[in-house]
Amino acid sequence: MKTSRVFWGVLFVAAGGLLLLLKLDIVTFEVGSYWRFWPVLIVLWGIAILTGVRALKIAAAVIAALYIALLLYEGAAWSVGDRNDWQTSEQKFVENADTSVHQVSFHFASGAGKFHIMDTCASLLDAEVSSNVGEYDFHSSTSDGRRDIHMDMSSRHGGWGLRAGKNRVDVSLNPSPVWDLAFDIGAAQLDLDLSRFLIDNLDIHSGAGEVKVTLGNRGGESRVNVKAGASSIVIRVPESAGCEADVQSALSSKRLEGMKKDEQSGKYRSENFASAARKIHITIQAGVSSVSVQRY
User: Fold this and answer.
1) Confidence of residue 74 (pLDDT cuts 50, 70, 90)
2) Domain region containing 42
3) Cα–Cα distance for residue pair 287/283, rounded to 1 Å
């Protein structure tokens, strides 16, 4: 039997069975942070390719399929709706603007949910939370004109990993300072419209779900680093910006618009990369994902 048939067969059976259990509300269980171990898929697939042993290839396909089924189940659990026995809490965090602050780093950590940056604000940062799975902790510090802001889920209800819940966070940023952004999330939808901001570094660690990022023309150079398990990754960059992409993936499809592979470095570059004043460097490490870099 072909390895691909084993992979898709196990995936459909496992995912279908888990989703059926979810719909019937027969079983719930906690998986914690298993999604962080998605690089194991790449290791297993690499070993199977190097050895050429058919049994290892089949084993790698089965493990990958089961892993993806769990990720799909976790993501689907969040679309079922709110549980009546979990109280939804609303939180609002405001970090006041300071003209002496020119560089800001924002570190965000959470599990599953929907997380957005879509708008600007007069303060340094505004965040609105609607969640019934736990509450967020928010703190910041300032040193030598740099502000470090941390926001993470400090408390959560037990067993929330695969149970239907609500966890939405909407963030607005001040467009004046230079931003370093870091997101450490689970099975989530992450939508970041950063076209109006000065972005120095953007780091995303995601288990499963959707990652959408839009970058603008502001600034000289931006560096984007994405590590994802089973995700749909879309990064939009302006046509006027020079773009370089290094995509490392085991079982991923990729579409890189207007970019050609440099055989010496193995990276993909736009034709205007060398001459453009604005440069965007993208590094993506993905397990089983769809990767797209779009020009607009």
Assistant:
1) low
2) 3-77
3) 14
d(CA 206, CA 192): 14
Of the residues 28, 54, 77, the one at which a domain ends:
77
**What is the distance between the alpha carbons of residues 130 and 166, in angstroms, rounded to a whole number?**
7
Question: What gap in Å lies between CA 162 and CA 29, rounded to an integer?
Answer: 6
Paired residues of 178 in beta bridges: 103, 198
Average pLDDT over residues 96-103: 94
Strand (E) positions, the chain?
Answer: 89-95, 103-109, 113-120, 125-131, 134-143, 146-156, 167-173, 178-194, 198-215, 221-237, 242-249, 253-256, 259-261, 268-270, 279-286, 290-295
Ramachandran angles phi, psi of 18, nearest 5° = -65, -40
C-alpha triplet 61, 185, 170: angle, nearest 5°: 140
Average pLDDT of the residues of the chain:
83
My answer on whether 142 and 240 are in the same domain is yes
Please name the residue that has the structure tokens 């004109």.
Answer: 145
Beta strands 134-143 and 146-156: pairing type? antiparallel
Give the span between the Cα atoms of 194 and 215, in whole angstroms.
5
Q: pLDDT value at position 158?
A: 45
For the entire predicted model, the pTM comes to 0.75
Alpha-carbon distance 103 to 134, whole Å?
A: 30
Question: What is the biggest distance separating any 2 CA atoms in the chain, rounded to whole angstroms?
Answer: 65
Q: 163 pLDDT exceeds 70?
A: no
Question: Which residue type occupies 154?
Answer: S
- Report residue 29 as tokens: 């269980």
172 plus 46 within the same structural domain: no
Mark whether 168 and 21 lie in a shared domain: no
